[in-house]
Design goal:
The protein is α/β, with parallel strands linked by helices. The protein has helices at residues 22-35, 46-55, 74-82, 98-101, 114-126, and strands spanning 14-18, 38-43, 61-65, 67-68, 71-72, 87-91, 106-109. A five-stranded parallel β-sheet has the order 2-1-3-6-7, sandwiched between helices. Strands 4-5 form a two-stranded antiparallel sheet. The longest helix is centred in the first third of the chain and has 14 residues, at 22-35.
Amino acid sequence: MNEHKFPGGLYGLRVFVVEDEAMVAMMLEDMLEDFGCIIVNVAGSVDSALEQVETGPQIDAAILDVNIGGQMVFPVADLLVEREVPFIFSTGYGPAGLSERYPHSQTLAKPYEAAALADVLAGCCLRAPPHLHPWQNLG
């Protein structure tokens, strides 16, 4: 494990990843582990993601690829909004329409580096209401 120091107290953050490209998902998992995050699950389809949010363990934050196998990830984002789970969008298509539909989300443009991911993830989580910060008591 790399011993990088990243901002925002990400250690112990339980992160859910929705990404349909295996190599991107593996790279993302490595980055998150380097930050000290706990990867709750990785979903490669919208249906799988919805099921995992409904039935899986608690999630502190999520990273959502916008286009999952030709299907938009919006049903997952809507469910996360309903459950007050902060999330960021990861996309190679640009942020068009995302900030209007999800004003509290942030967008990370692919490809990205670890430092950019850490900054955006920390910002996303710190903007969430304080009662949604349980991981900050872990480290």
